[in-house]
């Protein structure tokens, strides 16, 4: 499979498949642009349960914010319960032929009127129901993309009893209220398939984020088959950008850019969550949500920290970053060799301080990761962009800012 500029798929010991650089890569270089095969909203199924009455309205096809909300075009089939909206007639007709087919429309309407799901279950279950409807719809409208979904990693993780219960509940609900049409080729609607689909979602979904008045939430989840091949590292060398509110026709694509230079043959990894999380939180999340114990270089170092070191770092490592000796920054260049170099005591205790100083966004409570803008004419850019808030920072001014 061709995955992206300068990347190849390899089996990585203990991790399954992963992506490795097939040539030296430069900081800021775009190594992958990927389109979703599936997108689904995180809104409650019943609009009356929207947590904030002021919550933004998104197009149910392209997931751009609809502004003003009065410009929204309701789906003519489910407008009676005011459930699904589009930003244009084009999005409405594209969705009607794909992600918002008559079966989806009917299924979501039935599910939204079912209190056992919408009142007595957590929001997470309703979002899983949306995902299952989207996945079974994919099997009907685009069997080849459904096969791609089926090829993604699906090892079970976390609380297996709770996951099995959720699968039984959702499967029986869909079987009763809205079974997928039996005409669909290439899949059998079984409890086993439902539970594998849920596991694939847990391990592979990327969140398209929203930031309203500093409060971050996920507006939609997407399955990006090539980006799903990136393994996790707590000190990633690449990070993900999306520009979902942009006017571009491919606004739901995600872009993976290199954070710094890496040589050929190095595994390229993302962090599956903000890099400021403490060692214990990271280990817990990775085990519960992704089914593995992380043994990356950063975890190896932090595993030896004392409890007081851990506590000091819980809730954000920025304090330590701010305390870092500025000389360290001057000593080091952006290249990966430098990130792993250093033999003084401070670097052994906290060799990744440099990473936080340089590549973590310094906007309050953002915790985004910064990567240089794409190089032009083979020259790396001095401007770093935050993948959460879009803040730009000039590398040359880094010392002055800190
Ligand atoms: C999004 S998938 C990544 C691609 C996956 N390795 C594959 O073969 O398709 C996430 C899964 O990859 C594995 N994985 C990712 N990062 C890992 C790491 N640092 N150590 C061990 N396993 C990892 C875990 O099984 C995790 O649930």
Order of strands across the main sheet? 1-2-12-9
Instruction: Report, as a whole number of angstroms, the end-to-end distance.
Output: 43 Å
- What is the approximate shape? globular
How many H/I helices?
16
Percent strand equals 15-25%
CATH superfamily of the largest domain: SET domain
- CATH architecture identity of the largest domain: Beta Complex
Mean pLDDT: 86
The small molecules bound here are: S-adenosylmethionine
Helix content: 25-40%
Total DSSP E strands: 15
CATH class of the largest domain: Mainly Beta
Q: What value does the Rg take, in angstroms?
A: 22 Å
Largest sheet: 4 strands, mixed
Low-confidence parts, pLDDT < 50 over ≥5 residues? Answer: 315-338
Biased composition (Acidic residues): 308-336
Domain SET: 5-273
Protein name: SET domain-containing protein
InterPro entries: ASHR2-like (IPR044238), SET_dom (IPR001214), SET_dom_sf (IPR046341)
Short description:
The chain has 402 residues and is of the alpha+beta class. The chain folds into two domains: 7-35 and 224-401, Beta Complex (Beta-clip-like), CATH 2.170.270.10; 38-206, no CATH class.
